[in-house]
Design brief:
Distance between the termini: 33 Å
Number of helices: 11
Radius of gyration: 22 Å
Structural class: alpha+beta
Helix content: 40-55%
Largest sheet: 9 strands, antiparallel
CATH class of the largest domain: Alpha Beta
Strand content: 15-25%
């Protein structure tokens, strides 16, 4: 399909040039001097995604960046052709398989760069390299040190390892305290972000271990929380192995693959009724390091 690349590139540039307008596939086809049917076939063959789906997704990406600049949701939604906040959220979830709040928590929001034929193939065409396990897990309870943060300080779960590096002494102290106090039967730590307040730009973070003995309830201190992790279907992703210095970027790259490639292209969507979490076992203490990301999923409707 190389003979069509120049034409598709001109279409991608045209879409970005009028991203806030009502972009119709018929008009794109007419400008490219193709019938709508032939244009749609060529666009999907070259990029790996339908033209109409690409236009919607590109609008949402631009809208996400505008929202990160502290603009009102309703204003941004109207700019990009989504009549209400609810309409914008619904379109986002249909396109990506998860809500905008999850993107804000796990992904850096940067200005959309120029879309090229190759970048669209890689980003939108459902090409991903990760191995994923779909697991049914049983409910379990964790207990950990709880803290509240604003997004400018810790922008997403992918920042957790970097955040830990800034409090290395406290991190070690907290883990020692948790293991000594609650003596979990299974070694392993959990990192999770939850209770997202999009308007205030805040969320809760917890570094936790397993909670096995109900008799230990009285040992939970005021800066700690007990959280129930609901059982059910999870997609489990393992980060590539890397050095401690590479660790934060490896986690960030894995989240990017999950949210920009795997979830949009898979038969699953994010289950908002449950929590995602990061699980650290003995591999986290080895060199090179590695960990797992658990994403709650359900079949798309």
């Amino acid at each position: 399909m190389l003979e069509y690349d120049a034409m598709i590139q001109s279409v991608l540039d045209a879409i970005d040039g009028k991203i806030t307008e009502n972009i119709r596939v018929d008009d794109l086809a007419r400008a490219a001097e193709y019938s709508t049917y032939h244009f749609c076939r060529v666009f999907q063959a070259v990029t790996g995604t339908p033209a109409s789906a690409y236009v919607t997704r590109r609008k949402l990406e631009h809208a996400l960046y505008d929202l990160s600049q502290d603009r009102k949701v309703v204003d941004v939604a109207m700019d990009y052709g989504f009549e209400t906040h609810a309409g914008f959220t619904k379109a986002f979830k249909k396109c990506f398989g998860y809500p905008p709040s999850l993107h804000r928590l796990h992904m850096p929001v940067i200005p959309p760069g120029r879309a090229t034929v190759e970048s669209v193939k890689q980003k939108y065409g459902g090409i991903y390299r990760m191995q994923v396990q779909i697991k049914e897990i049983k409910p379990f309870t964790i207990v950990g040190v709880y803290s509240r943060h604003s997004l400018p300080n810790v922008k997403r779960s992918a920042d957790i390892p970097a955040y830990w590096n800034t409090i290395a002494m406290d991190y070690a102290k907290y883990l020692t305290q948790l293991y000594d106090t609650f003596a979990p039967a299974k070694h392993g730590e959990y990192g999770l972000c939850f209770d997202v307040d999009e308007k205030a730009g805040a969320f809760s973070y917890m570094l936790a271990v397993g909670f096995d003995d109900g008799a230990d309830e009285a040992k939970i201190e005021k800066d700690m929380r007990k959280v129930e992790i609901a059982g059910g279907l999870y997609a489990v992703f393992t980060t590539p192995k890397g050095s401690s210095d590479e660790y934060p970027q490896l986690v960030a790259d894995t989240w990017e693959e999950i949210l920009t490639k795997w979830l949009p292209a898979s038969q699953y969507e994010y289950d908002e009724a449950r929590l995602d979490f990061e699980a650290y076992d003995e591999r986290d203490h080895e060199d090179p390091v590695q960990m797992d990301i658990y994403v709650p999923v359900k079949m798309k409707k």
